[in-house]
Amino acid sequence: MGLMKRIGRLFAKQEPPVKEKSMLDLGPGDICEVSLVTYQVVGSVRNPSRNAVVLSLQDGNEIKYLHIEERELLQYALYDDIDGRLDNPSEVPTELVLDDKAYYLEEEYEGRVTINGRTPFRQGGEQHVWQFQADDNSLLRVEWQDGRFMLYEGAKVISGDVQVIRST
Question: Would you call 48 helix, strand, or coil by DSSP?
Fold first, then answer.
């Protein structure tokens, strides 16, 4: 009887390997590492038309935002939220000066987003985004949704500094 089981296992179909989640697939409860700091993903804002996501990451009391976009390769930028205010989305200039540093508009787009978990915005909908870059390659991101602005300051992160630790 043991011999028959062994023969049966030889001809049995192998289970397909479980596909590992990419950074674009992460959601609340997952763990990732960015620049040698381990974060828990607490929320995500997905823009499927751009194949992009902004993950809300928490390390203790600190919250950061990781923007991931798939173009030819995955591109990453890590942001901190900053205080600031804009009253009207039509008033976003092409050049912003923040702490004596000039940021120049690099990209402007809008799209429908879906939200999961804890994020700056509580529900999905139409979101407008302006991405700026300074001469020293530092980044500034402005988001507007449902009458609310969020401003972020950050920097690009190389793909070797970003990895999935545990996904659910």
Answer: coil
